[in-house]
Amino acid sequence: MYRLNSFQQFKLLPFIVDALTEKRITKPTDIQARIIPAAQNGRDIIGKSQTGTGKTLAFLLPIVEAINPEEASVQAIVVAPTRELAWQIHEELKSILIKNPDYIKSSLIVGGTDRERQIDKMKNPPQLIIGTPGRILDLMKAQALFPHKVTHFVVDEADQMLDMGFLPEVDRIAQSLPEKLQTMVFSATIPEKLEPFLKKYLHDPRFAEASVEHRVAPKIKHHVIPVRHRDRKELTVEIAKAINPFVCLVFTNTKQEADELETSFREAGLNVGTLHGDMQARRRKQAIKDINDAKYQYVIATDLAARGIDISGVSHVINHGIPKDLDFYTHRVGRTGRAGASGEAYTLYEDHENGPINRLEERGFEFTHVDVRNGSIQPIKTRRRRQTDRKMKVSHTAHSRMAGEIKKAKKKVKPGYKKKFKYKLKETASREHMQQQRSDRRAARKKNKR
């Protein structure tokens, strides 16, 4: 059985390879192939990778291999920004230890649970702790968790840690750890404000980024739908009905939009759940359980709330709005098309949002242009990107030049100068557009002669 599993190249424990094979995980993803050997050699790691690329196994497998099961002390700490993500990592750990569950002892240390009970558990310390930074730091301060023998430290979703204001707590945990330490940091993006932390705690790190093939999944079809002065909520509901998904994730840019959209979905009779940061802990926990139990056909979520939550069976993604940070687009659409399956993503846009779509196309995403007509998704004429961009560029150039001339002569102009300015601006823009066309034709002729 192991002969068919290429994870054997990492010389993993046989029961781990057995568990991976049972899960039908037989070939390392790009990020796993890059990170596991470096981690096994003791290198510090910076992994730039979105969800769905297999990064959790990339750090769990070498850590489990490195832990001494005979030593009853905390040897590895994994911090995650949310309870749900910490729980998910812990579940992944249990799945790879399923053939030998008593090999090492682990604990899930998160807020929203009985603190005294967790302190009591630390009396017989686990070898591996997975949790949120606040509760882990709390147990350290209470002198219930002793980190002096920790040899491995993982920070998952570091950019989200930064966004949620948890990085100072992570910093205090790192300061309490031994100097001889392997540190691994994983993040979908590497913002500038994260760099001081990386320079402070990582020494000669191995940088690994998921390849383009993993970042732009080939089996996901990307569609854009123009809003065209329609009500955006009503249009999103129409799309949701038309696609008839197995499970559809609907992303909004704000918590308020998520709540309003949930109301619209319920009024339309759709089976919907919602996930965002303002939900109370108990309600949020129940929502996660209901989502994992596949009780909803539609799940409305904000980016930070859904970050790190693995929802199985997602066949479609709808972007109610284009994310302000375009890196989140990759993260959103990566929720579908998992493990080689196909998926579809629909993004609503206004006319003034052509720029972000153009930039996504430059990143390798290919969009088809569709709309909802008579209850079904139908193709429409592709927007004229290049001509629109050129006209905007020419108009901007002409406007800048004319604005300068008007400013210089502003005090001397006669009544009606605004009308004359608009006319002259239009004339100049038209002239520059014609010059640009002639220049393009000349360049084309030269190219053909070559």
UniProtKB/TrEMBL annotation:
Chain ranges of the Helicase ATP-binding domain: 36-208
UniProt keyword terms in alphabetical order: ATP-binding, Helicase, Hydrolase, Nucleotide-binding
EC number, UniProt record: 3.6.4.-
Region (Disordered): 381-450
Keyword Ligase: no
Pfam families: DEAD, Helicase_C
Record's protein name: DEAD/DEAH box helicase
Organism, as annotated: Exiguobacterium aestuarii
